[in-house]
Amino acid sequence: MPEALSLSTVRTYRYLRLSVVALALLLATSLVLEVARTGGPLLGSISAYYYSPVRAVLVGSLVAIGLALVAIAGRPGAEDTLLNLAGMLVPVVAFVPTPVAADVAGGCPPGAGRCVPANLVPAVENNVAALLVVGAVGIVAAGWMALADGRASTATRWGLTTAVVVWAAFGAWFLLWPREGFLAAAHYAAAVPFFGLVAAVAVLDAVRVRRRARVRVLSPRQFSGAYAVVAVGMVGTIAVAGAVAGAEALTSFVAVDGWVFVVEAVLLVLFTVFWALQTAENWEDGVPDPVR
Q1: Which pTM was predicted?
Q2: Percent of the chain scoring above 90 in pLDDT
Q3: How far apart are CA 256 and CA 214, in angstroms?
Q4: Within 10 Å of residue 83's Cβ, how many Cβ atoms?
């Protein structure tokens, strides 16, 4: 453990990281309990459980995970930037539910076979608007802290610029374009990049950890292999899901019921494994340092 970090600092870092694993397990447990309670077929996706008693756990756990990804410092540079961007996207996944069929929604706008139910639209609009306001405050605060620390590094400047672009893009989409388009696609536009960003961090870690002289729990080579498996698993799962969705949209192919649920469940497990690996790797060090 570095001498510059107090034991309380390291413990705080550990508890924050462990809380993310606990939140993922909370969501998984809530899903299992709801499936057991209904005894029926799975809903089309994990996201569809927004329309079930799981909603509070689903929204609460995703928002808390997003805040943790932003709050927990990654290694300066690309890793910290990618995790911050992932944390920005997670609340959008939570606040904008996946559209449901017209008969379930109680009717959809003309030409739309799926939509967010009209009675939920005011809540979505309120939550997303609040998120945009707080996001702007957070970006300004991050910029101020970067300047207060001295000359901002190139990585910091790029990170802040990218955060502004992401915030502005979602803000413009929400405020300036027809609301139906945002409600129909924002959930997916945030969810897919989120897992892509986490996969990118796993790739960086797979390369970086090999340069460490010694790590507890596993060897550097074993950690590298585990990170690589997570990255390949995430990218492969997203690619397969995209291929299936494209085939359904462009051809007469119809996938088995519940395939989206399986995809999301695999990605949730891989994210949990990735976060547990990072927590174990940095257990003794506290906040990661780029030179270790």
Answers
A1: 0.89
A2: 61
A3: 46
A4: 24
